[in-house]
Write a structure and sequence with these properties.
Keywords: Hydrolase
Largest sheet: 5 strands, antiparallel
CATH topology: Thiol Ester Dehydrase, Chain A
GO molecular function: fatty acyl-CoA hydrolase activity
Number of helices: 3
InterPro entries: 4-hydroxybenzoyl-CoA_TE (IPR050563), HotDog_dom_sf (IPR029069), Tol-Pal_acyl-CoA_thioesterase (IPR014166), YbgC/YbaW (IPR006684)
CATH class: Alpha Beta
Strand content: 35-45%
Organism: Atopomonas hussainii
Helix content: 25-40%
Strand order of the largest sheet: 1-3-4-5-2
Protein name: 4-hydroxybenzoyl-CoA thioesterase
Length: 144
């Protein structure tokens, strides 16, 4: 799912604020997961699907599993680029690969892999991805 130059297709910019850091001015490890969550939400929005609209249609996306590798620290006031791509697409789930890098140096700081399940909001049981959303993700998979 990577572009020919190895870059993941969707990118979301994040600035590191004081609230994101520990006492030493280093990004607290769990905040990388939050940055990746925001990027997945924005990637969905770019495809025309707001989380709020999906919830109104009785659909939610929930994280089934998460894996993160911390490579180098981000610091207060850094600007980060969170790159995201869907690398696997199943009936009721998808797998994202994500990389957080320093925007200026392009240095990778954190890598993540997330399996996200589509569930019904009313009972939290698996629900097939809507056909139009599946098609949008499929086009991304085929174009890479």
């Amino acid at each position: 799912m990577r572009a020919p130059n190895g870059v993941l297709p969707f990118a979301h910019t994040v600035r590191v604020y004081y609230e994101d850091t520990d006492a030493g001015g280093i990004v607290y490890y769990v905040n990388y997961l939050k940055f990746m969550e925001r990027a997945r939400t924005e990637a969905l929005r770019q495809l025309g699907y707001a989380q709020s609209q999906l919830a109104e249609a009785n659909l939610l996306f929930v994280v089934h599993s998460a894996e993160a590798r911390y490579l180098k620290p981000a610091k207060l006031d850094d600007t980060l680029l969170v790159r995201s791509a869907v690398v696997e697409l199943a009936r009721a789930s998808l797998v994202f690969e994500q990389v957080i890098e320093h925007q200026d140096s392009k240095t990778p700081l954190c890598q993540g892999r997330f399996k996200v399940a589509c569930v019904r909001a009313d009972n939290l049981k698996p629900q097939a991805l809507p056909a139009t959303l599946r098609e949008a993700f499929s086009r991304q998979l085929l174009s890479e």
